[in-house]
Amino acid sequence: MAASSSNAYTTFNRDADMTLKTGVIGLGNMGGGMAATLAGKGFDVSGFDLSQAALAQAESKGVKPVADRKQLIQSVDILILSLPKAEHVESVCLGAGGISEFGRKGLVVVDTTTSTPEMSRKVAAELAKTGIAFIDAPVSGGPKGAATGTMSMVIGAEDADLARVMPVLKGMSGTRVHVGQCGAGNVAKIANNMLAACHLISTAEAVAMAARAGVDPEKLLQGLNAGSGRSGATQVMFPTWVLNKAYDSGFTMGLMRKDVGLASDLADSLDMDLPLSRVVAQLWQASSETLADNEDFCAIVQRTDATLYGHGE
User: Fold this and answer.
1) What CATH number should be reported for the domain holding residue 131?
2) How far apart are alpha carbons 203 and 191 in whole angstroms?
3) Do 160 and 106 belong to one domain?
4) Burial of 34 (0-12, 13-18, 19+ CB in 10 A)
5) Quick one: DSSP state of residue 97?
6) What is the pLDDT of residue 5?
7) CA nearest neighbour of 261 among 132, 134, 154, 116
């Protein structure tokens, strides 16, 4: 199957597609934003979360709260997962009281969790036995992207399954790239986050070096973004969350450490030696000595220069 972009799926019957019932399991910073975005655009959206506060917040944004996970699984045509880790995806999909037990034939599961390609393929194979399709579609763009429908998705899916859920995906995201079959989405997302982890540290070092040499960091970023050194770190992370010392991206150190670990595990499984990535992974893991899991992931730059990048008072 050839990978394709979202441009292949540009026409759909809006009225018919809006009648598809969509459920979201996991109404945190990301899942809650996705559900609210869809509800705001008129989709029929229900949601489940273990947190009553998250359920209440979603309800205030037009999402129908469902207190029982089984009930949600049984009642929807498309089920979106937004969960912390791969093991949570496996539990919800294949565990007792989960999707494999109560999902209806024809259900399509869209997993937006940054997970492992192996887990995605395992879950897809098991769910296929009961007539349920599984798509891995991890997302980038943070809570703001989820809340505004501007986040990006890299998708691993069969063409027919993707075509069926595309109206919903278009309703909750700004960019969608179909990179291959199930599992490919998480491979692409892991590669993306590996680069983001590298770029954030290398940018911190470059900016600190230039600042020590007398160049204003904001002026430097203008120069970098006009040249070949630009990246998401120079264009978004530093101007939005670092130089102003806001550190409020909504993405935590713990989550980035998890993603860096996924990249290391994937490289190991492929018997690849990636020297730069290995060193960067070591820096992220070592940061746990001074930066708690719940701190913003951009705070990693403070290990390069605590004075330049330290929290503002």
Assistant:
1) 3.40.50.720
2) 18
3) yes
4) buried
5) T
6) 40
7) 116
HSE-up of residue 31 (Cα within 13 Å, Cβ side) = 28
Q: Which two tokens stand for residue 266?
A: 């994937």
Same domain for 199 and 165: no
Mean pLDDT by 10 residues, the chain (313 residues): 37 55 97 98 97 98 97 98 97 97 98 97 98 98 95 98 97 98 98 98 98 98 98 98 96 96 97 97 97 98 96 57
* Spatial distance between the Cα atoms of 161 and 132, rounded to a whole number of angstroms: 10
Q: Which of 162, 181, 200 is the last residue of a domain?
A: 181
Positions annotated as catalytic residues are 189
Burial of 202 (0-12, 13-18, 19+ CB in 10 A): middle
Distance in angstroms (rounded) separating the CA atoms of residues 97 and 101: 6
Amino acid at 189: K
User: Rounded CA gap, 211 and 218, in Å?
Assistant: 10
**Range of the structural domain that residue 76 is part of:** 4-181
Closest CA to 79 of 96, 59, 60, 98: 98
- DSSP class of 250: S
CATH number of the domain residue 240 falls in: 1.10.1040.10
Torsion over CA of 196, 134, 57 and 34, rounded to 10 degrees? 50
Residues 168, 298, single domain; the answer is no
Residue type, 77: D
Is residue 97 located within the same domain as residue 138?
Answer: yes
Q: Which of residues 181, 216, 237 is at a domain's end? A: 181
pLDDT at 17 (0 to 100): 61
Neighbouring residues of 20: CB distance < 8 A, sequence distance ≥ 6: 43, 44, 77, 78, 167, 168
